[in-house]
């Protein structure tokens, strides 16, 4: 009997041991409150959100990485561009609708490049900056004035364009533009797509005037304005309102003095426009050495033989030059005494 009880007791102990040995232990699950965020994580997130943005570093990196992508087949920033090297038959402008000038820089799609690097020559103070000698110009250049395929159009500079004075000799001096009648305050429009290069004032000449640089190598000048409506470096489209007409500077009445220039030299705008019919002659204009024959003639050295009763002032007025020009060309001063029969260089 005792042995039977002992066997039962031992069997119970062994069954308990095996049951515990084979039991599966599950990890304790702790439910995390999602609404609470550790203090360290919150501080890190604030640091990220409040970190300053280094604009200059970003622009430098963007310029280095994306120049070749954005301007591929359009603008080669690694090559100094000039109006001679530009292809006047391809109307491709930098891919932007807004250019901004800061000092002597322009901004193209947030990539900063100096104006000199992009345009080869860029000056927002002077009209003729190209140092072009027409005597050495022997080729013909086909200028693409507009191209609807690329979306580049043309517009007349005024709503109505009655001509009051033409290009050529006037009152003993050369008139480099075409004068178009208007009433002070009339709107003045950009003739082609381009960028405003000069916005200035000439008391004894153009008055308030603008010079707009165009992709095809031309520049247009708008003189005797009463009000500016654009800034230097601003991109404009053909037909955009850029100024109000007036009679500032050397002017006898309200009108627009309108010039077309190639490499800084003016030529007859009526070779390009039919102002009476308010239309342009065609999509192309051929510039030849004869285009600047008047400039070559004007720059040819000329001399005047001094006559009795003449002085520097009367001679200067006769040839349409300044007294300072005469003194500089002849190495004299305003106090120099002129001799009858003396040869003075006037050009």
UniProtKB/TrEMBL annotation:
The keyword Signal applies. Residues 302-346 form the LysM domain. Residues 1-23 form the signal peptide. InterPro entries: Cell_wall_metabolism_enzyme (IPR050570), Dup_hybrid_motif (IPR011055), LysM (IPR018392), LysM_dom_sf (IPR036779), M23ase_b-sheet_dom (IPR016047). It comes from the Bacteria. Keywords: Signal. GO terms for molecular function: metalloendopeptidase activity. PANTHER family: MUREIN HYDROLASE ACTIVATOR ENVC, PEPTIDASE-RELATED. This is Peptidase, M23/M37 family. It comes from Algoriphagus machipongonensis.
